[in-house]
Write a structure and sequence with these properties.
Blueprint: H1 5-11, E1 13-16, E2 24-27, H2 29-33, H3 35-49, E3 56-60, H4 63-75, E4 78-84, E5 92-99, E6 102-109, E7 118-126, H5 130-141, E8 145-154, H6 160-166, E9 171-176
Parallel strand pairs: 3-4, 3-7, 7-8, 8-9
Antiparallel strand pairs: 1-2, 4-6, 5-6
Helix pairs in contact: 1-3, 3-4
Length: 181
């Protein structure tokens, strides 16, 4: 967890029973609207990764882009979007993953990385870990090396972080929420 983890967590809004009854949605909008909190969020990632000699920050569609772009800028490396199927205009590689209610697919431009590139993979939240695992596998298949996966929020009770670690990838989260928080 980041030194700003408790502060960042306090700025995130919980919306009960959305999108369905019994679900607590973790809304990062107040975090993005608060310039001081947003700066602390990006600084949390910059401080962790500034000495890791990264070649690129890959970010998952779409909220991961919000973190990934300024982070890549601050780290002086490239930014690579990992998109939902059908959103990239060039030749792609894809990875299918299982969701709670079916399957989905993420894509990456086939020429996004060079063999051995050191990649940080970011998204806003880890729930069941399917999207992050699929994106990490895509990066590995393309020749990149995933240095770590990073997120604002981890929901450990859904075991996504465990799934990502079991797949061989490190996990960093700025903060975490339990279901009753």
């Amino acid at each position: 967890m980041s030194i700003y983890g408790d502060y960042i967590k306090s700025v995130i809004r919980t919306v009960p029973d959305w999108p369905q009854p019994g679900v607590n949605f973790r809304d990062i909008t107040p975090l993005l609207q608060n310039s001081s909190a947003f700066r602390k969020l990006i600084d949390s990632f910059v401080h962790r990764y500034q000495d890791m000699d990264l070649d690129a920050v890959a970010a998952i569609d779409a909220r991961g882009f919000i973190i990934g772009a300024p982070l890549a800028y601050e780290l002086g490396c490239s930014f690579v979007p990992v998109r939902k199927k059908g959103k990239l205009p060039f030749r792609t590689i894809s990875e299918t993953y299982t969701l709670e209610y079916g399957q989905s697919e993420v894509e990456l431009h086939a020429d996004a990385f060079h063999h051995g590139d050191r990649i940080l993979l970011v998204d806003d939240l880890i729930a069941t870990g399917g999207t992050m695992c699929a994106a990490a596998k895509l990066i590995t298949r393309s020749g990149g090396h995933v240095v770590e996966t990073a997120t604002i929020i981890d929901l450990p009770e859904l075991a996504g972080s465990d799934k990502i670690r079991e797949a061989g990838f490190g996990v960093f989260a700025v903060c975490s929420f339990t279901e009753d928080e």
